[in-house]
Amino acid sequence: MEKLWRIFPLHMREGLREAAGALHNMEEIRIRTGQPVILLGGQEEWFLLKKAEKTGCLTKEPAEAYRATAQDLNDLMVFISRYSLFAFEEELKNGFITLEGGHRVGLGGQAVCHGERIQTLRNISSMNIRICHQVKGCAKELAPYLYRHPKQKRSGIYNTLIVSPPGIGKTTLLRDMVRILSNGTRQHTGLNVSIVDERSEIAGCYQGTPQNDVGMRTDVLDGCPKSSGMMFLIRTMSPQVVAVDELGSKEDVAAVAYACSCGCSILGSVHAWGLEELEKKPVLKELIHGHFERFLAIRQIEGGMRQYELYNAGKERIC
Q1: Are strands 38-41 and 44-48 parallel, antiparallel or unpaired?
Q2: pLDDT by residue (tens digit) across 62-112?
Q3: Which of 227, 231, 166 is CA-nearest to residue 201?
């Protein structure tokens, strides 16, 4: 975490460091020009306190909050890019930059377009810094249900789709499942896993190297569209499992079909409130009926706790 604080101007650095210690589970830092600096963690929203207001580092009152300046955003970009924005042109085009440690900075500002394509961003006016949290062991109880029975002709795991609304932890769960499948368990040999990490959220690669522990038998293709990335890795790395986050397009469905025809298992995720919603979306409905054999639905219940429900291809609940 210390490397993360170094991207902030000095007058913000100490307060954010203290805030992280106070919150323990800080997930996001949202910075907007002229607006209070917002800290999110544990389903709660806090503001970074102006030092002149009182002792401490956090407040619930916007009037007491520190408001980011245009110079703050400019300094952040300088520190993030290590004084060379030109070297990050590709990242700016995609709207985010991955930092050492796997933290991810989403960007907003003035888009420079060529036709329908964004070429770069200028005059950055907002940032969403998503702090990388790897929760090792969160998939430990669920992973055994993914493996095929030893008596089945096909080995490996069932094609499994994680279904979850945004912000509930599907990527965290997917990441840990990849780690477990890759390293293996006492009952199961480790599998060769390939991750297509289009937004650098699963492995959190920094300069091509995963910052998260995704297992000893895992290969990562970072920053590549899911559809072309799946086909690329199947040809180059011969994976037993292909892992992808946030499926949703027709091209993704075609790539999943291609992977299945090549004998690979798919471990994927999709944004939805449940299996019922998937049935109402034509493209996603094809994923349900055509390729996946296990569905893991994540729901948030009272108190911020997560509830996991695993279903088979016939929509019968397994656990």
Answers
A1: antiparallel
A2: 999 999 999 999 999 999 987 677 667 878 888 899 898 999 999 999 999
A3: 166
Tell me the C-alpha distance between 309 and 211, whole Å: 29
Q: What is the pLDDT of residues 46-63, one digit of tens each?
A: 999 987 555 678 999 999
Phi, psi (deg, nearest 5) at residue 150: -55, -25
* 98, 204 contact by CB (below 8 A): yes
Query: For 122-167, what is each residue's pLDDT tens digit?
Result: 999 999 999 988 899 999 999 999 999 876 667 799 999 999 998 8
Residue-level pLDDT at 278: 82
Count of CB atoms within 10 A of residue 28's CB?
16
What is the C-alpha to C-alpha distance for residues 91 and 149, in angstroms, rounded to an integer? Answer: 43
Q: Are 31 and 72 in contact (CB under 8 A)?
A: yes
Following DSSP, what letter does each residue of the chain receive, concatenated? -HHHHTTS-HHHHHHHHHHHHHHSSEEEEEEETTSB-EEEETTEEEEEBPTTT-SSSEES-GGGB-B--HHHHHHHHHHHTTT-GGGGHHHHHHTEEEPTTS-EEEEEEEEEEETTEEEEEEEEEEEEEEPP---TTTTTTTGGGGBPPTTSSS-SB--EEEEE-TTSSHHHHHHHHHHHHHH--SSS----EEEEETTS-SS-EETTEESS---TTEEEEET--HHHHHHHHHHHH--SEEEES---SHHHHHHHHHHHHTT-EEEEEEE-SSHHHHHHSHHHHHHHHHT-SEEEEEEE-GGG-EEEEEEETTS-B--
